[in-house]
Amino acid sequence: MTGLLRVPRDHGSAGAGIADTLRDEILRGIHPPGARIRQEDLATRHTTSRIPVREALRILEAEGLVTRVANAGAWVSRLTLDECQELYLVRERVEPVLLAISAPLLSTADLDDLDDLAERMEDADAEDFLRHDRAFHFLTYAPARTVMLGETVVGLWNRTHHYRRAFVTAAHARHDGAAHHDHRLLVAALRRGDADEAAHVLERHIRRTRIELERHPEIFANEPPVR
């Protein structure tokens, strides 16, 4: 990049740091969908100018976590039920493709780590489950080297994370162990070298969450409006 589009290195580094902090807070539910993000508050909090703050918001917008409106401001991205269904339908199609690319590249150590994460999830509370679940699935994709598919999947996960939290909380309340069963089946298929079966397990795993979310439209109705 040249000219006015160039971000000074110090601002770029500061912006990435602010983005890391805000990303973590959004994914942990500290800032819910529809919450206003005020540049001046972020600048004060991080003792910086608005330039790196704008860079941070640009990064998070590209990841699907933040929505910016020209001359209006920025908000944590939110979804309607229809939008969430659409993103989950996309996930059902693209994540098995990414897994099929990655599966042959997973090492024995990777598979052992997946077993460990699957075991941790079985005894975890809802929030720890979400953290381990993200680590689990992203590890299954990690060896793949793609032009855009990997980034696309991260964006889909980010945009649907809040709603997955609601699903996981409800599943824990009724002691639903279907996700744990899927994780074990997935690792078993990967250990056998059966990438096709692993992809089928993953597709069903994602579909189950989509169907469950469709049964709970109140998750989407009770969010603060974006202003």
From TrEMBL:
UniProt keyword annotation of Transcription regulation present: yes
Keyword DNA-binding: yes
Domain HTH gntR-type: residue ranges: 12-79
InterPro entries named in the record: GntR_C, TF_FadR/GntR_C, Tscrpt_reg_HTH_GntR, WH-like_DNA-bd_sf, WH_DNA-bd_sf
Keywords carried by this UniProt record: DNA-binding, Transcription, Transcription regulation
UniProt name for this protein: GntR family transcriptional regulator
Organism: Microbacterium mcarthurae
Upper lineage: Bacteria, Bacillati, Actinomycetota, Actinomycetes, Micrococcales
